[in-house]
Amino acid sequence: MATRVIPPRILKNIKYNTATATATATATTKPLNSAHPSILSSTAVALPSLYEKADHQKPPSSSPVTTAAKSSLLNLDDAEKLFSSVSTSKLLRSSAVLHATAMGPMVDFGMWIMKSRLMQTGVMKDFVMAAIKKTFFENFCAGEDAADAGRSIRWLNEVGLRGMLVYGVEDAHDNEGCDRNLKGFLHTVDVSRSLPLNSVSFVIVKITAICPMQLLERVSDLLRWQQKDPSFNLPWKQDCLPIFAESSPLYHTQKRPEPLTPEEEKDLELANQRLLELCQKCVKANIPLLVDAEHTTVQPAIDYFTYSSAIMHNKDDNPIVYGTIQTYLKDAKERLLLTAKGADKMGVPMGYKLVRGAYMSTESKLAESLGYASPIHNTIQATHKCFNDCSSFLLEKIANGPGNVVLATHNVESGKLAAAKAHDLGMGKVNHKMEFAQLYGMSEALSFGLSNAGFQVSKYMPFGPVEMVMPYLLRRAEENRGLLAASGFDRQLMRKELGRRLKAAVF
After folding, report:
1. Per-residue pLDDT for 6 more than 60?
2. At a CB cut-off of 8 Å and minimum separation 6, what does 21 contact?
3. Cα separations in angstroms, 455 against 139, 272, 436
4. Belongs to which family (predicted)?
5. Which helix (H) or strand (E) holds 322?
6. CB–CB of 459/440 below 8 Å?
7. How far apart are the C-alpha atoms of 49 and 67, rounded to whole Å?
8. Fewest beta carbons less than 10 Å away: which of 9, 145, 290, 419?
């Protein structure tokens, strides 16, 4: 069985007794993803804290370091150090792309072109697609095929980051498309196994790509109605963790839905078999499978697939199937607490990815059209609080028991708070029960800063032909325009580093 190792870039920054560490590592190294244990256990090897002073002496117990002080020691100011592993050409492209996507009119114009009739003419389409490939695609995607993705992952591995490998398909509408997409996801597992050890943290799956969208809507309607009326029988339903909370929106289902037809039940079984095959392959490869979240119209069905699979495959404090919690939803924290309690009761170790969310405009428009308040928090501050509260809860939970967490955030303050919380809980360096994550091509300063501090950090990396990944790029542009516009922190640091390199080259 393969074992996890510390990325070279992190390893070279850790100073401790090599002889002691070697002897201890032999005794403590665990199988890949065996509860993601900390390879360098605090009980086995005395490592310097992430937040210790330069002389590696801890502050006296009478003068404890405050959370604010510890979080500030996550160094995000030294642009030269943060981008030391990034070539000037890559830095120039990233800076230019981030500046372009920060301009609302530029994003609107690009989306108009992509959806216009101009894209139906061969010459214009070829020109636009070539331009997109050399700019936005190469900045936000891992490549057009497995070979390209492998090269991107290897580069990340060399600089101390990891990759979440994402076969870049979106929705499927029939069984033929679902079967085709499944082959892509299965191939992604094979690609992951062929790459350097520890370089791929997760394989990502979108349930909307392996189960027809219409069926997901039907299943979500039926699950919502059962929540309204517990006597409503769903004969096809498998064991599952709690999906809804009292505050969960149920307005999508306005009337009692008809039971699934025999054909729909057959299609549901096919979808179950697809996910089962993918889960079994991940179990065999010992690579976690992370299920992406979608909009609330189909999220109940996605949670149903996720949690029923987790019950089946997550064993012995070893989460293989991870779910996603979108904390911009008002019911996110309540659902997380209920699901975690249910998992504990059933003895199921759960893995969660926390995100803020990516369907704000869609959710608000749908709720308004049905005469209901938006399920999204009313303010960005409330969303930040929800993310940070959920993050704190999960970190405390995994520090004292089973389970893993991925904190997918581009917010610097959330990163600092979580890093400080992990330190307070004594979780130590390179703890495999927790991981930070950002989108590939975004929040590079935060990614490298967290990695420099000794945390595991992954980048969300979609790959596939440009035309296939185009829906992903368009959705990112539309749903993340606020995030892209707020990328000034990264852009400022990139400008600073490019200026330094130019000055060094001239003088």
Report:
1. no
2. 40, 45
3. 23, 35, 7
4. Belongs to the proline oxidase family.
5. strand 321-326
6. yes
7. 14
8. 145
